[in-house]
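DM from R.C. (forwarded with permission)

"hey, sorry to bug you on a friday — could you get me a structure for this? deadline for the figure draft is monday and I only need the backbone to look sensible"
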Amino acid sequence: MKRTLLILVLLLPSLVWADPVVPGDSTTLPATDSLIEDGSMIVSIGRMTIENMTLSDTLFVTLDATGAPLAGFDFKIGIDNPMVDIVEILPGEIYDSCRWEYFSARQIIIANREGYPPLLWQTVALADMASGADQPVCFGFNREASLLKLVLSNEHVLDQPDTAVQIFFFWEDCTDNTISGRTGNKLLISRQVFDYVGTKPEAGSRLFPTRTGAPEHCINPSKVNRPRRMIDFHNGGVEFRLRIDPEPVDTSKGE
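My reply, with the result:
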């Protein structure tokens, strides 16, 4: 886990700024982390309703950063209901369109550890691993855009009932669910966590693992480049709600 944090903090300052090259994006993002100081970031897992009870679809994890540039992220995403499986996680629009250099997504083996969801994935993305000829063309957009694509399935479920399945961010340590600012000098962590699908989890006494965000000890006030609480995380999920269309009315019987 600490190795990921070192990559984000040490390698990213060498990035060179370039304007976004995306149709419809006429504005450019700043070359520094200036907007991060007064701004905020919203990272959201999407929500969907499945009416035919068969799930084989993609759910987006999006970023709304009010124009603040980013150069990397490290997320952990879990599901505690065995009726939904994450088949794979693919990079989103920011990674693809901005031509970032590094992306990794892997499932973490839990082995019935206390406090952990049965399904947990980690994703890491970096705009640039080191200075070189091929530079990323942008570091985010002045609009909401996708960071990840979660490929979901319930094909292993023989009889899907009406239910709600939560998909949520998960913290094992202070380096989880972080975003690196454009210069690499700013590391952004959770400010708030919101739930919309199913029952809100109870807050436990332990620091880790947790679904409620990075605890206070993750910030050392004496450090100059200490992490900033700038990210509002919005959990999502899937609701299965069987839709039964009414039988058509036979109007010919009255004739």
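R.C.: lifesaver. The first strand starts at residue 41 and ends at 45.
me: no worries. Helices lie at 2-11, 34-38, 93-98.
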